[in-house]
Amino acid sequence: MKKEKINLGCGKEIKEGYINLDFEEFDGVDVIHDLNIFPYPFKTNQFKEILMDRSLEHLDNPYRVMKEIYRIAQKDAVIKIRVPHFSSIQCWGNLQHKRGFSVRTFNSGGIEKDFEVIYAEIEIPRIRFFIKPMVKMFPLFYEKNLAYIFPATDLVVHLKVKKE
User: Rounded to whole angstroms, what are the CA distances from 123 to 90, 113, 126, 156, 158?
Assistant: First the structure.
């Protein structure tokens, strides 16, 4: 059976039904490849779903990674990304992290012509439950004015690939 879903930068988080790719040889990894090396070893328009869970922040050039994801994704493919929010202690508390992300990251900088944001949520720790409704309704206000007072944890984004 041809797998049309891929888990990029899977680490030890192996997903059933996906091609699991990492640069290290963990149990369950199907493809060993460094995501900083282009092109990726896949055909154009190969995948209908691409998962990147806590891996994009480790890479040298997220813009180029997104362009490569666009290449290997089918028309209307769903791209599911989880990254640390820029206000998270995990964002800058890990020596391997190269950058943080905001709700504007995936609909600006030139990639907005290739992807449509279909879901974006700033995740807030449970202890800050009282601010969550405001963050959900006004994410840009939160990021500009409150993010360092009430830090988030992650940014979860789902994108839809725009192709003719």
Answer: 13, 26, 9, 7, 14
Query: How large is the C-alpha radius of gyration of the chain?
Result: 16
Which of 158, 153, 156 is CA-nearest to residue 86? 153
Domain segments of the chain as ranges:
5-161
Task: Give CA–CA dist 104/143, Å, rounded.
Answer: 10
> Are 59 and 97 in contact, with CB atoms under 8 Å apart?
no
What letter does residue 130 receive in the DSSP assignment? G
CATH number of 5-161: 3.40.50.150
Q: Would the pTM of this model clear 0.85, i.e. be above it? A: yes
pLDDT digits (tens, 9 = 90+) for 13-30: 999 999 999 999 999 999
β-strands 73-84, 47-53 pairing: parallel
Rounded to the nearest 5 degrees, what angle is found at the Cα of 93, between the Cα atoms of 18 and 60?
A: 55
Which tens digit of pLDDT belongs to each residue from 84-111?
999 999 898 888 999 999 999 999 888 9
pLDDT at 164: 87
Distances (CA, A) of 68 to 80, 89, 144: 15, 29, 30
